[in-house]
Amino acid sequence: MDLFNNGVLVGEPITNFQARLLFLDSSYISTGVEGELLTEMQRKTLRNHCLVWAGLLAIFSLALYAGGFWYMTWIYARINQTLRIVMMERAEHLSLKYHNDARTGDAMYRIYQDSATITNVFLVLVLSPTRAVLWLLFAIVVITGFNPLLGLVCLLTSIPIVYLFYILTPAIRRWSRRARRTNSDLTSRVQEVFTGIKIIKSSRAEKQVLDRFISDSKNALDAAFHLRLRIAALQVGVTVALMMATLVMQYFMANWTITEQATYLGGTVAIVGFVIWNLGAYQAASAQSNNILRNLRDLVDYWGVGQDLIIGLKRAFFLLDLEPEVKEIVEPAAFPAIVQKIAWHEVNFSYNASLQRILKNINLVSEVGTITAIVGSTGTGKSTLMSLLLRLYDPDKGVVMINDTDISQLSITELRKNVAIALQKNILFTRTIAENIAFGFPEKTREEITAAARVACAHDFIIEMDRGYDTELGERGSKLSSGQRQRLSIARAILRGTPILILDEPTASLDAVTEHEVLSNLRDWGKNRVVFLVTHRLSTIRTADQIAFMENGTIRELGSHKELMNRENGHYRGFVETEIDGASNPAN
Questions:
Q1: pLDDT digit string (tens) for 271-283?
Q2: With contact defined as beta carbons under 8 Å apart, do 114 and 78 qualify?
Q3: Which end of the chain is more exposed for a tag (fewer CB within 10 A), N or C?
């Protein structure tokens, strides 16, 4: 009796076709020549080769996928990182006019959150939509090949879908913009709370601050809800239209299948593959209608997310599109080797063209080796006058000059390199005392740091601390008193050794003895420099060589303390007498 294995008579030669059928059977593997069988060794060799090549292919595919994933992730991260750096650089170079009106939290949100949208732009706005559109068009072409009536149904369905996109897209963008704005407001609120936490606690205003935070958080939540609601409305509307179209197409396809009608292009175009409508044609056409439904719904998702990405990118590029009002000159003049005088000539300035001028027709000259006190009540433009010298702003009219050179013709970097400023609001960092004094100038030696601290009368209290100049300060210098922080701020300005020094209320937190010592040291230190004191503390004013008394944005009087006090009914004299009277009668 003949023995069969998978339909082949054992012992008889096999054909190539039969060999293919027996390929998985280890007892029969053909060499490809009729009548020849592989030996046991050849079978093992062939199997091993297949396993090796399969393993190499798997490793290559895994490496390709992992490498591609790592590459794309790295590219996305680099793009985002580069954008953030450029945004921060642009924000730093914008004039104070912008920063005066903008909230810090808004800039933080733009740089950190809005910039992150760029990593999804290629995927959400280019790659995924393109793939979905191509598959959608392919499905429409195939289903039209079955019967043009189905293509007509798709065309008619596109009319309400396009209309839904038309009426809901502006709302999606509007709420996306509002959602991002309210989230930036929330970020600003958080930043303000933690910046002023001491004031909040001391004023027992925790509940008031929390209520404001809850309100901002609710606004952000409401905006996000309305954004998602509009996107969901678009998705539901498109889905309903597509389902109705699908029902209509299913009705036609079922009838054609029952009556076995001929397909439109089945006999001539292989893409359809069916000459008449039968169960196979019905299933194939239904699959294409499902593809249309799925890809169009994907497009709706990409569209909704894409609108939010576009708004985020617009907010991110807002900083990049802003042009700084104070611009660097292309070919700057050399900064004077020796500063002999600083002068303001007919200077006018306002923060906004529609607002009242802050400075009006300012004329002032300060010689080297002198101390000029800028005096006046709050809001008269004292600090703004000094800001013009640093080119934090540019005057609307008039010029600020160093020697005979307009500072607008100098390099901004060189100008600020030669001007040091100590502000009343002392900014210290969570570093050592020495690092705080030498902030921005790490090359300064310990001897130079110590010398600057001595001029500022800070050396004595520093060496009394546990680790002296290496003592770590708390956040914002919380371990120090206000007077100690102020002296470190003065030391930082002195360490720079610039020919121009601006001290904004330099002794406001100092006692009378320390104030006198600091001012005496500053006079000796500033013999070859131009020093400005922005103050209305009388003990500080008296040490100045000249006093510029400002009122309503103008310099009303100019002269020494003695000269101005000798003027009957003088503006400065009236200011001093009012200050003295207020100090002697605090109850009034």
A1: 566 778 888 888 8
A2: no
A3: N
- At 328-338, the pLDDT tens digits run 788 888 888 88
Q: Please state, in angstroms and rounded to a whole number, the distance separating the CA atoms of residues 422 and 502.
A: 6
Distance spanning both ends of the chain, measured CA to CA: 131
Distance (Å, whole) CA 384 – CA 389: 9
Cβ neighbours of 216 (radius 10 Å): 18
Q: Which CATH class is domain 96-321?
A: mainly alpha
DSSP 126: I
Q: Assign domain 426-497 to a CATH class.
A: alpha beta
d(CA 142, CA 151): 9
Each residue of 180-206: b (16+ CB within 10 Å) or e? bbbbbbbbbbebbeeeeeeebeeeeee
DSSP per-residue letters across 476-498 = GGTTS-HHHHHHHHHHHHHHT--
Query: How many other C-beta atoms are found inside a 10 Å radius of the C-beta of residue 545?
Result: 16
Tokens encoding 103 = 């909230």
Q: Which residues pair with 500 in a beta bridge?
A: 419, 530
**Structure tokens belonging to residue 343:** 């002068």
Three-state SS string over 317-364 comes to HHHHHCCCCCCCCCCCECCCCCCCEEEEEEEEECCCCCCCCCEEEEEE
pTM: 0.58
Q: What is the DSSP letter of 471?
A: P
